[in-house]
Amino acid sequence: MPADQPIPRRILVTGVGANPGFGLTRSLTRLGHKVVAADANPLAPGFLLPDVVPQVIPRATEPEYPSVMAGTCRDLAVDAVVACIEHDIPPLVDMLPQLDADGVRLWLPDAASVCCCIDKAAFYEVLTEHGISTPRTWRPEAIDQVPDRTELVVKPRRGHGAQNVHFVHRRDHARVLCELVPEPVVQERVHGSEFTADCLVDRAGRASVILRRRNLVKAGLAAVSTTFDDLIVRDLVVKTLGAVRARGVCCVQGFICDGAVVITELNVRIADGFPLAEAVGADLVGQMVNGLFGLPVDHDRLTYRTGVFLTNYVETLAVGDVAELERTAAAKGAPS
Question: What's this model's pTM, rounded to 2 decimal places?
Answer without folding.
Answer: 0.91
